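Weekend entry, working from home. Most of the wet-lab plans are on hold until the incubator is repaired, so I used the time to fold the two sequences that have been sitting in the queue since the last round of cloning. Logging both here for the record. First:
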Amino acid sequence: MGIYHKIMVTLDCSPVDIAIVDHVVLLAKSENSTVVLTHVVHSHTLDQNRILLEKAKKGIEKYKKIFLAAGIPVEICLLSGEPEKELEKEIKANHYDLVAMATHGHKALSDILYGSVSGYLKHHISIPILLIHGARENDE
C-alpha cells in the first residue's frame, strides 16, 4: 500500500468535479487507496437543503460508479453547513492522508470577495492538498 491510504475527494457538484475524479482514479489505483467522496450542502432553508442534498446524491452517485468500476473502494460523506468549516472538522476527525479538490480558477478578486475553500484549508489542516484546475465552461 502507498502513502495515501484514505483520500478525501471534495465535490461541489459542478462541471469541474470530473477533473479531480479522473486524476484521483489513477492515483488511488496506484496507491491502493480508499476514496471518500465528500460534499458539503450549503443552504439557508430546509427546502433548499432538501433540494441540494438530492442533487448532491445524484452527482456523487455517478462518480462513485466510476471509482467502483476501476476497482477502488469508495465511501460517501455528505455534510451540511459552511463548506470550509465542515471540511476542516471532517478532516481533523478522521484519518485522511490527502485532500483532493478541483478548483474553479477564480481570479484573485473573486477569491477575496467569495473566499476560497482550498485557501482556507491550506491554513487550517496539516495533510497534503491536491488541487487540479477544473475546466470552466468558457475554457472548453
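Second, folded right after the first finished:
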Amino acid sequence: MAKDKSTKEPGRLKQMWQVFQMTRRYDDRALLYILLGLVLPIIAGAVVAVFLSGGNVFTIVLWVLAGILAGVLLALVILGRRAERAAYSQIEGQPGAVGAVLRSSLRRSWRGSEMPVAVNGKTQDAVYRATGRGGVVLISEGPKSRTKRMLDEERRKVTRVLPNVPITVISVGPDADSVPLHRIPRTLAKIKPTLTKAEVLAISNRLQSMENQMPIPKGVDPMKVRAQRAR
C-alpha cells in the first residue's frame, strides 16, 4: 500500500505541473493570478495572527497555517479555472467546439448533447440545444448573420411542441456581442429556474422524440454532412 501511494503522488504532481505549463503557455496572466491567489490569503492570515492572537504563539501558528492552506486551495481553484479557459481557447472557432463544452462542462441541472440539432454542411455553422430548469436553450455556433435562420427554425420547432416552455437563444461566434466559449456554462447557470426536475425530464424526452434523426454519427465532421433529399 505504501508503494502504491508513493508511486501515485508524483504522478499527480507531474500532471498538475503539465497543466500549469500548458495554462501559462496560452494564458499570459495565469501566473499572476495564481501567485495572487496563493500569497494574499497567507498575508491575510499573518495580519490576523498579529492583531488577534494576543501574543499567543500557538494561535499565531494556527492563523498562518490557515492562511497557507487557504492560499494553496485558492491557487488550485484559479489554476483549474484558467486551465479550462486556456483549453477552450484552443478549440474556439472550430466546428463542434460548443458540443465539446456541452458534453463536458455543464452543471447537473442542465443536460445537453455534443450533437447539433441543425448543421449547415457548407459553412459548418450549427445549432445546439440544452435543457434545464431554465427551459430550453438554443446555442448557435457561427456568425449571427449565417445562423439566424437556423435558430429561428429551431425555435419554431420547439415552440410548436412545447408552447409554454421558455426558450433562450445564445450565440457563440465572432460577433462582438457573442458569448465566449468558456462562458457557456456560466451563462446557462444565470438563467432563472422555472421548471421542476420532473418537467425537465419530460421536456427532454419530448424533444428527443420529435427530432428528425439527422445522419450525423457521433464525432463526425459537419463539413461532410450532406443535406437530405426531399422525398
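Plan for Monday: verify the second prediction. Helices lie at 2-26, 30-52, 57-91, 97-104, 144-161, 184-189, 197-210.
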